[in-house]
Amino acid sequence: MRRYDVVVVGSGHNALVTAAYLARAGRGVVVLEGNDRPGGLVRTEELTVPGFLHDTYSSAHPLFTTGPAYAELGPELTALGLTYRNSRYCVGVSMPGARTAVLSTDPEENVAEAERLAPGDGAALTALLQDFQPHAGPVFGLFAAELASPASARVIHDLTHDDGHYSTFAQQFLRTARDLLEHTFASPVAHGLLAPWALHLGRSPDEVNSSFWTVMVLLAVTSAGMPTPEGGSERLTRALAALTERHGGRVETGRWVERILVRDGRAVGVRTTDGEVVRADRAVVASVNPDQLYLELLAHEDGVVPPLIRRQAADYRYGRGCVQIHLALSAPPRFTDERLARTGQSHLTGGLDALSRSVNEATRGLLPAEPTISIDTPAAADPTRCPPGAAVARLQLLDVPLRLRGDAAGEIDTTDGWTDDVKNAFADRVLELAARHAPNLPGAVLGRHVIAPPDLARFNPNCGPGDPYGGSHELAQSYLLRPLPGRPSHRTVVPNLFMVGAATWPGHGVNGASGYIVAKELTGPEQG
Ligand SMILES: Cc1cc2nc3c(=O)[nH]c(=O)nc-3n(C[C@H](O)[C@H](O)[C@H](O)COP(=O)(O)OP(=O)(O)OC[C@H]3O[C@@H](n4cnc5c(N)ncnc54)[C@H](O)[C@@H]3O)c2cc1C
Question: Is the pTM of this model over 0.85?
Answer without folding.
Answer: yes
